[in-house]
Amino acid sequence: xxxxIIVAALMALVAGCKSTEEKPAPVEEGAPASSAPAPAxxxxxxGAPSGAxxxxxxxxxxxxxxxxxxxxxxxxxxxxxFDDYSIKDQYRPIIEAHAKYLQFxxxxxxxxxxxxxxxxTREYNIALGQRRADAVKRMMVLLGAQEIQIETVxxxxxxxxxxxxxxxxxxxxxxxxxxxxxx
Length: 183
Description:
183 residues, alpha+beta, CATH 3.30.1330.60, 4-stranded mixed beta sheet, 33% helix
């Protein structure tokens, strides 16, 4: 019986010593940029190196990182399936990187622009584009961004990225674009 009490006390001590502070995950350098709705490359995030100043000039979450074509922050579009607003796993690292950017740059603001393909009524597409933008916003907030930093808007089918009446064009138009203020 005494052994169990000691084991329980040690477990409580270890659990109490565990840090709840999580270090930010830096963006993996060297991930190739992609503008097509192809699956996101193997860009992932990992734990921050000790001593990393993520919001500092030149850091993985700096304003300069937004313009670095090798940084995951240069990826600004999240693509969706037809008539759907669920976020595919392949786009989660992109959303996570932008959420971390907002977390470390509290004065930064983004607009999430929801888009759809040309199929469906104007009203339906405006609502679907809004649901897509709101889904990305919810994920960003869950990952550390503040709601006040994120504005959502839907353009529906009004601003296609690619003209055309085929699946290739429609696939590029079903998206949310992440637009950082000042760019």
